[in-house]
What we know:
Layout: E1 2-4, H1 8-19, H2 27-35, E2 46-52, E3 55-61, E4 67-71, H3 76-86, E5 93-94, H4 97-110, E6 121-126, E7 136-138, H5 144-159, H6 165-175, E8 180-184, E9 187-197, E10 201-209, H7 218-232, E11 236-242, H8 246-255, E12 257-259
Helix pairs in contact: 1-2, 3-4, 5-6
Amino acid sequence: MVVSYDYGKDFFSDNEKILLSDELEYGMAIHNAKILRDYKLDEKNYALKITADGGVLLAIRSGDYPMALAGSPAGVDEFVSEIDRRGLVFTDILGASDITAAFIAGYQKVHPIRFKKAVSMEIMAFEGEGKFCAEVAPVSAADVDTVAGFVRGFYRECFDEEVSPQSAREQAERMIPRMLGYYADGRLAAIARPSRETNRYINISNVYTDPGYRGRGYMQALILHVCKLIQDAGKTPSLYVDVANPISSRVYKKVGFRSI
């Protein structure tokens, strides 16, 4: 059985128990529901619940954010049929490994396409004590070109992917309003951004250090500053780390994060 919601608030209220059972794993689904709270949903912004074989699969997508999957993989075949029937749009997928693998397999049975790349992420939560740093400040709009360069560098290093200058600049413009940076001698050296928020957590994303400034402790100081802001807001900092990047994992553990 498929339930399609008209508004994000209806999706959240109907499935709150499932979503809040694991705020870290289902953070993107919660984030999308908040964005779409009062938004009339369509083929690009949608929220569905699929009940099959005693399990519940939740799917929600908002704008440029990944389609978030939560719950049970049992309903993926019915969900694929619903995507085709309604012409639902998606580019990226985010969810637990069992759900995403089942969805990809189910989608490929109907559509012989190859999904580009899968990244396994480790979820971490902060258990240390945040600390303010005088060199950290909100990133200025004047630094948009520098941030755009960081966006291109991030995609190149993490995904072996080239992003066009225009696309990188557009992403930078969207990210800057909540972004914080470490400034070394007046130059933006590292960035991080508080992003998705749930009842208990605020996720830190868009973390990047200029290659010329790495190994100097700037990122650690920046992360601790962001963690302090989040803790002062009464929430717990969290983040996702690529399991293929053990160096980042060690750095985060050093400042007080632990794997969940």
